[in-house]
Design brief:
The protein is an alpha/beta fold. It has nine helices and nine strands.
């Protein structure tokens, strides 16, 4: 209780100064600037240049309580110094971000400030709207309202698909719009993202869970599931 009370009377600059001294006592920091920025997401960052620590925090966290601000300080400075924060620190920060009211504010801000840059769903080899409609009828009896669909503006070797609940969009990696990608592979990736749309996020004990037991069970209902996973792996190895 005494620690939490003390935090209430510290400025953000004092919190960052104290955390930095604790993590790197030999590093000289002559000035600390902390400011809130109207980002389109919950991203924040810290940069150290010429002994000046500059911290830019999303304004979504402007009203966050002191323990959350301190947890963020540990996370940002830890990243700067390449030191992983403790599981307890990460849990404090994640519990706050996963609160229903904070998640709602984040979704609103993403819709207002963010932009989704997607290519037309009709690609050179595959039409995402046709694929979505086919899967929707086959597996969901047409019960899923079609979201905004499109190919990613940039190719990626780390993510083949993404569902964004804030903008209600499904984007597939443009690398899949290729003759090298079997139809079954493209459909399997789309099916996976439709399941994200259907099941959404599951929050338990302040933690966000995406691939729940229900999600994984539903994914296995995909026709030729094992074959599709093998084909997907083969496609990834060929990138």
């Amino acid at each position: 209780m005494q620690v939490e009370t003390a935090l209430l009377f510290e400025s953000l600059e004092q919190i960052y100064a104290r955390v930095f001294r604790a993590l790197s006592p030999r590093t000289r920091v002559s000035k600390i600037t902390v400011e809130f920025r109207d980002h389109a997401n919950a991203n924040s960052r810290a940069v150290l240049r010429d002994a000046h620590l500059r911290v830019r925090i999303t304004d979504l966290l402007e009203t966050a309580p002191a323990p959350v601000q301190e947890a963020l300080a540990h996370i940002l400075i830890g990243k700067l110094l390449r030191r992983k924060p403790s599981a307890e620190i990460i849990a404090i920060y994640n519990r706050y971000l996963n609160r229903a009211d904070v998640r709602h504010r984040l979704d609103v801000v993403k819709r207002q400030r963010g932009r989704k840059l997607l290519l037309h769903p009709r690609g050179e080899n595959y039409d995402l709207q046709q694929i979505f409609d086919h899967l929707n009828q086959k597996y969901f009896a047409g019960s899923i309202a079609r979201p905004q669909l499109g190919w990613s503006a940039r190719p990626s070797r780390t993510s083949l698909g993404h569902y964004d609940p804030s903008h209600r969009t499904i984007a597939l990696n443009r690398l899949l719009d290729s003759r090298k990608a079997d139809t079954m592979v493209v459909e399997f990736v789309m099916f996976h993202e439709i399941l994200h749309l259907k099941f959404g996020m599951d929050y338990k004990a302040g933690q966000a869970r995406v691939h729940t037991k229900e999600f994984k069970a539903a994914e296995k209902s995909f026709e030729r599931y094992a074959e599709a996973r093998t084909a997907l792996k083969r496609f990834l190895e060929g990138l």
